[in-house]
Structure formats: structure tokens, C-alpha cells
Amino acid sequence: MLAVVALLAASCGSPGKPVDPAPVSNAAWPQPAHVGGPDATAGGTSDTSCNPLASLSPTSTTVPDNSTMSDIRKRGKLIAGVDQTTYLFGFRNPTSGNLEGFDIDMVNAVAKAIFGSADGHVQFRAIPSSQREEVLKKHQVDIVVRTYSITCTRKKDVEFSSVYYVAGQKILVTKESKAQKLADLSGKRVCATKKSTSLAKIATDPAKPVPISVDNWSDCLVMLQQGQVEAVSTDDTILAGMAAQDSTLEVRGDRLTQENYGIGVPKDHEDMVRYVNAVLDQIRGNGVWQDSYRRWVEARLGPASPPSPQYQQ
Question: What residues contact 142, with CB distance under 8 A and at least 6 apart?
């Protein structure tokens, strides 16, 4: 018995000299998926071969037989490509689960014109900015309403409505940052989404900031919060939504560009373009545009009026 006790005591003896744990390198936040650099197809802002603001003249909000709109009515739903990650313009309400924002209101206005009510008649399809042309060219959606800047390059592949909102590119930085404008970010990592006009501006700016491309604007916000980029640069509308979510961030600088938002429509659906323009004309005049702007945007960007449309025929 004593031998057994002695053996147990020996097995539970001193563990010896402690050993330091293996050295750990500096921890790094994981990056969002599909982070890249400049994008050669980033919006085509240098193409001046057209008047990007001129759209097809409107018809009426009556739905004629044998039209794109009557086919949508028969289907029972308007299929719209939207964003679900841009606060104030297209985002998912965490309480209700519904998509909300200024762009979502524009979709609902079109659906209401076709069906009499938007309730139950919209199928939202959340898409990254890089897929806006693709889903229209493949007829996977009827319209795209996603802070979609009209450019001549894009008009070669899709049609656009008249301009329903005018934005401008600025920068978003932490309040501790010394940068006041894009020119102050020489050699610094600046985030924008793939195939966006914002990314094109960053990539060609004389100050030579380092463009970092991601799928969604929410990825840029996370990277800025984690210190993986020095700034986000895009439309003041998108940046305002980010700043509203994080009080440590601040929108700075004058507008670097003028971004004219239009509703994207497949190239061969001319009647739909004219119909959407008629709807936009209607909501510019009946207060719907202004009510939506006051609800979502005015507190962050100040008063504004709906832009005047331009028509080519």
C-alpha cells in the first residue's frame, strides 16, 4: 500500500520549470471576401461620347396592353435589383426585416404605378454594385435602383431613366484623421466598391491614393473601422449613411464629382424606360420624392429639390 502511495506522489510531483508560450505575431483583422485593387471597368467616367443625362421622353403611367409593364403585371411582381447594405438608401431594417431607404421608395413608386399598390408586388433582389449591368443584360431584373450613376459607358449596355437624384463623391475618415480631402491621402489605402465610378476616381487621382476594391459598401465601412484602410471615398449619400451608423467617423471635403443617379432598365425595354420616366415626373410633382428625401436624407445632407429631367426625344 505504501508503495502505491509513493508511486502516485511521484506521478503528481513538481511540473518543473514553466515554459514560455510560443511567440505570437501581431494579430490582424480578417478582411472581407474578394478584396482587390483598381478595376479597369470602374464605371467609365471618362467616356464623353453621349449626353448621359438625356433619357427617353415619358409616356403616361397607364399600362398599355402588350407592353413590358403589362407582362410585369401578369407576373404579379416587379423584380428590382437593389442594395441591402447602404443605410438611408437601400438597407434591411433589423427590426422588421424589410428593405427600406430612398432607393427602395423609388422602386415602390414604380410598383404602385403598375399595380395600384406596392404591397406584395415587389420582389427585391439584393446585388453588389459590380453586378448591376449584368443582371439587366441577362433580364434577371426589370429595373435596378441602387445609387446607380449614369455614364456613357454604362449606357452602351443598359438604358437609364432620367436623373432622380444628384450626389457627389467625398471622403469618409475617422475623426482623428488629418485628411480633409482625397488629395491628402497620397499613398494611403482608400476603399470603394468594384466597378464603381468612385473607384475609378480614386485610381486616377493625381495624389495617387491606393485603391482598394470590395463587393459592398458595408465592407468598406468595416475595413475603415478596423484600420485596414485610411478612408472610404464615394458618393456623399452613401458616406452619410456610414457616418450615421458610427459617430467616430466623419464625411469631409468638397464634392469631387457629380453623380447622377438613374434607374437602370434592360436595353431592349424602351417602353419601360418611358414609363419609369412618367412615374418619376409624377412623384417629382406630387410630393412623394420630397417626402422620401425628408425622411431619409435631409437631416444628413440638408434640403434639396428633385433634379429637373432631360429628354432626348
Answer: 68, 72, 78, 79, 80, 265, 266, 269, 272
Q: For the chain, percent helix, then strand, then coil, each to nearest 5? A: 35, 20, 45
Q: Name the one residue in this structure whose C-alpha cell is 409593364.
A: 69
CA distance linking residue 5 with residue 300, whole number of Å: 77
Please tell me the number of Cα atoms within 13 Å of 187 on its side-chain side.
0
> Do 171 and 301 form a contact (C-beta atoms < 8 A)?
no
pTM of this structure: 0.84
> What pLDDT, in 10s, does the model give residues 114-142?
999 999 999 999 999 889 999 999 999 99
Question: Which residue is associated with the grid cell 478596423?
Answer: 226
pLDDT-based confidence at residue 38 (cuts at 50, 70, 90): low
Give dist(CA 24, CA 89) in Å, integer: 43
